[in-house]
Amino acid sequence: MKAVVTGATGLIGRALASRLVAPVALVRDPSRAPEGARAVRWDTSAPAPSPALEGADVVFHLAGDPVAGGRWSPEKKARIRASRVAGTRSIVRAIEASAERPRALVCASAVGFYGSRGDDELTERDPAGAGFLADVCREWEAEALQAEALGVRVVLARFGVVLSPDGGALSAMLPPFRLGLGGAIAGGKQWMSWIHLDDAVGMLLHAAESRSIRGPMNVTAPAPATNAELTRALGRALGRPAVLGVPRFAIAAALGEAAEIVLASQRALPEVAARSGFRHAHREIGAALEHLLSPAAARVASAAE
């Protein structure tokens, strides 16, 4: 598979690149490109280099400004939106300008598309919800779908919370939990659509290779967990108590509008992937966390560095 990966220095992009043979990595800083990749400099605020896409079987478009990391200022919200919406528009224009266009575009999105939906089970057939992230996801996906008119198959990979001790939400949770200071957030009733990093990468590769998959695909485990279930499972995996919950008002006061990231409830199910034959290696939150935090997993991660 000849592949191009944007966002190749991020958690998912780096793991994906390690599963590909000599991918082209579109990155801001070529010195940070994954080993074995051919680095091409690209910033999402600039036009994407169409020659780098020539002859590719698939473009995995994963680039985007991080949504986590403190409050959302107007400037931060503008960067989040532009890096995804304008960045994806740039990729589609580069595809259009390519003499030999890629066959598929697998574009990242997020389960934030659905907004906060309580206990409702959500599949790819459900409509967009409300909120800043839902609005961004809707615009982001609309830009990616423009590539369909160019004869390119488009998959919208709606990621849940990708779990890995090497980055993202789980790595941020580990320090307090290891000190016995972890616990549920805002009562813990909100649903978290999670996915083990290995399965997230597997689903991206499955989407690239499965011609029947078009449009949205939830990149989530088949058994979503509530925040309380996840924190209890994490406490068990670490052998630490997980009873010091964080009240809703404290999260809202600390993060403002960005509290949406941890307070929204999304119970998204991977219906499209399941119907197309994908089989998750990590289906339950407890077993997934045990695997991620086991000494064997740590040795593998250390060897990959």
Short account of what is shown:
The chain is α/β, with parallel strands linked by helices and 305 residues long. The protein has a single domain (3-304), classed as NAD(P)-binding Rossmann-like Domain (Rossmann fold, 3-Layer(aba) Sandwich), CATH 3.40.50.720. It is built from 11 helices and 13 strands.
Structure in words:
- By secondary structure, the chain is α/β, with parallel strands linked by helices.
- The chain has a single domain (3-304), classed as NAD(P)-binding Rossmann-like Domain (Rossmann fold, 3-Layer(aba) Sandwich), CATH 3.40.50.
- It contains eleven helices and 13 strands.
- The chain has helices at 11-17, 74-97, 132-145, 168-178, 197-209, 227-238, 248-255, 260-263, 271-275, 285-292, 295-304, and strands spanning 3-6, 24-27, 38-41, 58-61, 104-110, 121-122, 153-159, 161-163, 191-192, 194-196, 215-219, 225-226, 267-268.
- The chain has a seven-stranded parallel β-sheet with strand order 3-2-1-4-5-7-11, with helices on both faces.
- Strand 4, helix 2 (74-97) and strand 5 form a beta-alpha-beta unit.
- The protein is globular.
- The model is unreliable at 297-305 (pLDDT under 50).
Tell me the series of helices and strands, N- to C-terminal. EHEEEHEEHEEHEEHEEHHHEHHH
Distance between the termini: 24 Å
Query: How large is the share of residues in beta strands?
Result: 15-25%
What structural class results from the helix and strand content? Answer: alpha/beta
**Which superfamily, in CATH terms, is the homologous superfamily?**
NAD(P)-binding Rossmann-like Domain
**Parts with pLDDT < 50 across at least 5 consecutive residues:** 297-305
Report strand order across the widest sheet: 3-2-1-4-5-7-11
Query: How many strand elements?
Result: 13
Count of discrete structural domains: 1
**Mind telling me which CATH architecture this is?**
3-Layer(aba) Sandwich
* Average residue pLDDT: 94
Sheet with most strands: 7 strands, parallel
Shape: globular
Radius of gyration: 19 Å
According to CATH, what is the topology?
A: Rossmann fold
Percentage of residues assigned to helices: 25-40%
Query: How many helices in DSSP terms?
Result: 11
